[in-house]
Amino acid sequence: MSHGLFITFEGLDGSGKTTQIRHLAAALEAEGRRVVTLRQPGGTALGDRIRAVLLDSRSEAELGAIAPEAEMALMFADRAQSLREVILPALAEGAIVLCDRYTDSSEAYQGAGRGLGSERILAMHKAVCNDIQPGLTVLLLPRLQSSLYRARRRNERHAQKHGTDENRFEREGDDFYTRVHEQYREIARREEKRVVVIADEAPIEAIASRILEVVHARLEEMAASAERSAVQ
Ligand code: TYD
Predict the structure, then answer these.
(1) I need a surface site. Which of 1, 21, 37, 93 has the fewest CB within 10 A?
(2) Best of 8, 12, 13 to mutate for ligand 1, by most ligand atoms within 8 A of CB?
(3) Bond prior to 134 in cis (omega within 30° of 0)
(4) Mean local confidence (pLDDT), 104-108
(5) In whole angstroms, what separates CA 193 from the centre of its chain?
(6) What is the pTM of this model?
(7) Of 75, 101, 128, best ligand 1 pocket probe by most atoms within 8 Å of the beta carbon
């Protein structure tokens, strides 16, 4: 078994995950802990290629419409690669891995958003990811409309700066995002031990210190259970 802690961040586009990951990584590193951060899709050379295909809204002009099942399978191809190449080795060395999105995203976006259903996603997770789940998931779930507004503004800025866009998902309408949002709530209900939900819109620093508290509590639990098994 691994000794590190695997933490994933989930939420809608524009929910503030990336900022919170940055804060948490800095706080944990300041305590002298080893931290590895990555995002999905992406985070490996193969994953970056997959990301470009999946996220650029111009992909479909070149490749044709991407079937929902193909989208799901590509998300999992990316995930399998980052598990083997980055996540599992880092955990084996005792690092804290902070991953921006993981299988809950596939369940919310492909399962509910695209309508493939949770069962298929969870079966694929078993087959491709050996059912590996994070020790903790931070789900940032502010109001739907404020997330969408932030995501759309950010993508406009990205397109102006880089000449590429990552808009394929942001072009989806409010119905799609309502299904994604609802599915996240359902996952949180189902997995209440693993998933910590932050639903209010407190200032960035206030949310960051709440997340740090939750992570400290989880690390203490792990240390206590390691001590118990050493005594036995
Ligand atoms: P990204 O720019 O990383 O999103 P954000 O910073 O807003 O989290 O884009 C990732 C996009 O890919 C996002 O719209 C959600 C989508 N996605 C899925 O649909 N399924 C998945 O399994 C994953 C990992 C991401």
Answers:
(1) 1
(2) 13
(3) no
(4) 98
(5) 17
(6) 0.93
(7) 101
Looking at residue 1, its pLDDT comes to 43
For the four alpha carbons of 203, 208, 213 and 218, in that order, the dihedral sign comes to positive
| Ligand 1 site, residue 109, Cβ cutoff 6 A | yes
Which residue lies with its CA nearest to atom 25 of ligand 1? 105
Q: Which fold has domain 15-23+30-203?
A: Rossmann fold (3.40.50)
Written as one letter, the residue type at 124 is M
**Ligand 1 atom 14, closest CA:** 169
Ligand 1 centroid from CA 182, angstroms: 16
**Ranges of each domain in the chain:** 15-23+30-203
What mean pLDDT is predicted for residues 69-83?
A: 98
What rounded mean pLDDT belongs to the chain?
A: 92
